[in-house]
Design a protein that fits this description.
With 502 residues, the protein is of the alpha+beta class. The chain has a single domain, classed as Cytochrome p450 (Orthogonal Bundle), CATH 1.10.630.10. Helix content is 52%, strand content 9%. It is built from 19 helices and ten strands. The strands form four sheets. Strands 1-2-6-3 form a four-stranded mixed β-sheet. Strands 4-5 form a two-stranded antiparallel ribbon.
């Protein structure tokens, strides 16, 4: 073999080796000034390390807190879910991330791609002009329909009355609120969005609840295994959660599309009886003016309804389940809440938000339950829109930023005894409700939760309404010390309650 032949064989191999070395260097390289944290591996980043720590410490939020302590920094730098990722864990940094405009982006990993039905539309997981225009539109029209005002309070009250009747019919039989709460919450949301109410014992809704639960357990706030290694969906579609999210997406989108089609069939120009009608009006207006750049499309309606369905199935419902679990764990608090309601409101009418100022201990018990059992211990889901700095560290554009709320809620320096359930911490010396800037369950800034008023209303009405009428007793064999189910968000393990009429 001649010299030229040898070169023709060796040169491509040498170039391939150099290209591989450059690629590996790029994969392993920590950007200059990036926050401290463990070394990551090519392709999978810190996925295995975070998974190992999460298993050892029982949760991902505790794993992140451990890393913050290990590296002595309130900002930890990782590579997870296919992206550079930082975790922040102090009040001041949380406020910065939630209010500074350069942190207003949303991550664009594989999980969010699937979560948005591969459309990247809606209001929950998008940013930029689309998010600004659509969020403003949704908020404006929901308010015009009464969402957030007296009309919404009436709808919540109606659902509370229906729930109380159902609990009364149980006649002391053990029941699971997990089967009841999502329907009640969604009935209010979809009344304003689609003029729709879920029938009692709706099997389709129950299937959605079950699929949502499987999906939530398969993922975490970094996107889980699927975002770290999207190609695994071809090898492990079940273990990665790919099957769970696609099944949920198919069923949820079919349900939402049926609502849209029904509205299209009954629509006439100018009709705006609910949010879907308002969108159809905007679509017709854009078509008439031949506006090809409009963000008002059927895909957008679909994703907005999906966002509403997703939020109603999980966050508020899971928060309420945790609240009632805490009442089972602390019967003395439960009794004190009942007595306060009985003295301030009586038993002839249900409590309303107008009674809230007189139900200080009741509200404090709600807040303390949310602090200790936060549904989203890791939240934020922000993406850096331009190169910036945080706490003196450099964050490149497109870095994902997450907030470890669990660290804030369990900070011993701030709370003193965070592991103790003590509603009094939210009551001032003068007996008034005391706000705390370390407890911000609905976020801050322009991305603040759109459903904050609705969620607060549901939490208060259902909590006060049920404790006014019933004593909650754990069914035989119920494990009240059971830990939460982990995943994208937290939910209590299923538990049975016996509702005894007072």
């Amino acid at each position: 073999m001649g010299r030229d032949d040898m070169l023709s064989l060796v040169l491509p191999l040498l170039l391939a080796a150099v290209a591989l070395a450059v690629w590996l260097w790029g994969q392993l390289r920590r950007p200059p000034g990036f926050p401290p944290g463990p070394t990551w591996l090519p392709v999978i980043g810190n996925y295995l390390e975070i998974r190992r720590l999460s298993k050892k410490l029982s949760s991902q939020h505790e794993a992140f807190a451990h890393l913050a302590e290990q590296y002595g920094s309130p900002v930890i730098g990782l590579h997870v879910g296919g992206d550079l990722t930082v975790i922040v864990s102090t009040r001041s940094l949380k406020r910065e991330v939630l209010t500074r405009p350069e942190f207003e982006g949303r991550p664009q990993n594989f999980f969010t791609y699937l979560r948005t039905l591969k459309l990247r539309k809606g209001v929950a997981m998008v940013d930029g002009k689309l998010w600004q225009e659509q969020r403003a539109f949704v908020m404006k029209h929901l308010r015009s329909l009464g969402f957030g005002g007296p009309a919404m309070q009436d709808q919540v009250g109606e659902e509370v009355r229906a729930m109380l009747a159902e609990l009364s019919d149980s006649r002391g039989r053990p029941m699971q609120l997990k089967q009841l709460l999502p329907r009640s919450v969604l009935n209010v949301i979809f009344h304003f969005c689609a003029g729709y109410r879920f029938p009692r014992d709706d099997q389709q809704l129950q299937t959605l609840i079950d699929l949502q639960d499987v999906r939530s357990r398969a993922f975490d706030m970094t996107g889980g295994k699927l975002s770290a290694m999207p190609w695994l969906r071809f090898i492990q579609p079940e273990a990665t959660g790919y099957n769970a999210i696609t099944k949920f997406n198919d069923m949820a989108s079919a349900f939402c599309m049926k609502l849209i089609e029904d509205h299209k069939a009954a629509y006439f120009p100018g009709k705006k009886t609910d949010l879907i009608d308002a969108y159809l009006y905007e679509i017709a207006k854009a078509k008439e003016s031949q506006d090809d750049n409009t963000t008002f499309t059927e895909d957008q309606i679909l994703m907005v309804l999906y966002d509403m369905l997703d939020a109603g199935l999980e966050e508020t419902s899971s928060a309420l389940q945790f609240v009632f679990l805490m009442m089972l764990r602390h019967p003395d608090v439960q009794e004190r809440v009942h007595n306060e309601i009985k003295e301030a409101v009586g038993t002839d009418r249900p409590p309303t938000l107008e009674d809230k100022d007189r139900l200080v201990y009741t509200t404090a018990a709600l807040m303390e339950s949310q602090r200790m059992c936060y549904v989203l211990p890791i939240r934020g889901l922000r993406r850096v829109l331009e190169d910036t700095t945080l706490h003196g560290y450099r964050l490149p554009v497109n870095t994902t930023v997450l907030i470890n709320n669990w660290s804030l809620h369990m900070d011993k320096e701030h709370w003193g005894d965070p592991e103790v359930y003590r509603p009094e911490r939210f009551i001032s010396e003068t007996g008034l409700l005391r706000e705390d800037d370390a407890f911000v369950p609905f976020g801050l800034g322009r991305h603040r939760c759109m459903g904050e008023h609705f969620a607060k209303s549901c939490l208060f009405h259902f909590f006060a309404g049920i404790l006014q009428k019933f004593q909650l007793v754990p069914a035989d064999g119920t494990d009240l010390k059971s830990t939460a189910l982990g995943g994208f968000n937290l939910a209590p393990k299923p538990f049975d309650i016996i509702f005894k009429s007072r």
